Amino acid sequence: MNTLEVKQLSKHFNEKEIINNISFCVEQGQLLSLLGPSGCGKTTTLRMIAGLELPDKGEIWIEGVIANRGNKTLIPQRQRHIGMVFQDLALWPHMTVYENIEFGLKAHGLIRAERRKKIEAVLHKANMQKYAREYPGNLSGGQQQLIAIVRAIVTEPRLLLMDEPLSGIDVKLREDIRQEIKRIQQETQITTVYVTHDQEDAFLLANKIAVMNAGMIEQTSSPEEIYSSPASLFVAGFIGESNIIQVKITGKDRVLSPWGELVCNTKGREGKNAYLFFRPHHAIIGDSGHCYGTIIHRDFIAGMYKYRVSTSGIEFKLQDQTKRDTGEPVKFSIRKMKILFF
């Protein structure tokens, strides 16, 4: 069963198209990430799902019931039973952690004993029991983030919406909180839509990723499929580090590249819009390589040298553990490559 279905959704602001005819669904218990660069429409999509913005066209279905048809609201925002975690957390500084979490339960009319039972259970899930009587200002950024998540899930929402929740947290703490989010989501099985521009967040948390660009969804699939078989030129260039070089098909499983003719599966197709696609780590630098180029730039990151290399004016990326100098010629072989058609 799909907890959420978005069908042909569109949105304009001041005659500018923000969302263009997007569709996707999220199964019960699944975490879907809306991944894309800033300004691509991720947050606007999330706000329409929450009922905070009206779409111009399209439909939003929650647990098989239509919530919006075009700009007509059929289920008001307060009745959608959605939990939200915002970028700014929105914790009340004058309330303790316990009181922040309790607020939503009071609004649902639960008696004190039921509220206490639910709060204790959800704090236990997040390993935050000892902070119940603390004020948010006394907690670290990561701890505050966990409390915001706990507050969102304590009412057992049908759907949890998270908008860039880790954007203000430093890298090391981000890794820890990301693991906690994944554990809590998997334990509670709350269907979640997670908005982010950070690829690590999306790939480490999501069952399914929808890659957005300029108000459209370019590809929706598993993280593995998104990475290994991008469906558009944008996805191929946006996800991870990649080399995308236009080539000419010269025959069955043969393409003309900047390094001459290469053997690669052409999928029985012909056409001008054929691209050789490989990741920097799919190439091996060595004298036995049949491809060649000249190093034009070098970086050192986490034990690996990352090179920008040029062949006949075409630039691409390689990486290796051996230090080489700018201007040095190199040979390499591509051990894993694909021909993509866009």
Description:
With 342 residues, this protein is an alpha+beta fold. The chain contains eight helices and 21 strands. The protein has helices at residues 42-50, 97-107, 112-125, 141-153, 171-188, 199-205, 223-228, 233-238, and strands at residues 2-13, 16-27, 31-35, 57-62, 65-69, 72-73, 82-85, 159-163, 191-196, 208-213, 216-221, 243-251, 254-257, 260-263, 274-278, 283-285, 291-301, 304-311, 314-320, 329-334, 338-341. Strands 7-8-9-3-10-11 form a six-stranded mixed sheet, with helices on both faces. The two termini are 33 Å apart. The model has no long low-confidence stretch (mean pLDDT 94).
> What percentage of residues falls in helices of 4 or more residues?
10-25%
Mean pLDDT: 94
Largest sheet: 6 strands, mixed
Portion in beta strands: 35-45%
* Shape call: globular
- The termini sit apart by 33 Å
Q: Which features characterize this protein?
A:
single chain, 342 residues, alpha+beta, 6-stranded mixed beta sheet, 5-stranded antiparallel beta sheet, 8 helices
Topology at a glance:
Blueprint: E1 2-13, E2 16-27, E3 31-35, H1 42-50, E4 57-62, E5 65-69, E6 72-73, E7 82-85, H2 97-107, H3 112-125, H4 141-153, E8 159-163, H5 171-188, E9 191-196, H6 199-205, E10 208-213, E11 216-221, H7 223-228, H8 233-238, E12 243-251, E13 254-257, E14 260-263, E15 274-278, E16 283-285, E17 291-301, E18 304-311, E19 314-320, E20 329-334, E21 338-341
Parallel strand pairs: 3-9, 3-10, 7-8, 8-9
Antiparallel strand pairs: 1-2, 1-4, 4-5, 5-6, 10-11, 12-13, 12-15, 13-14, 15-21, 16-20, 17-18, 17-20, 18-19
Helix pairs in contact: 2-3, 2-4, 4-5
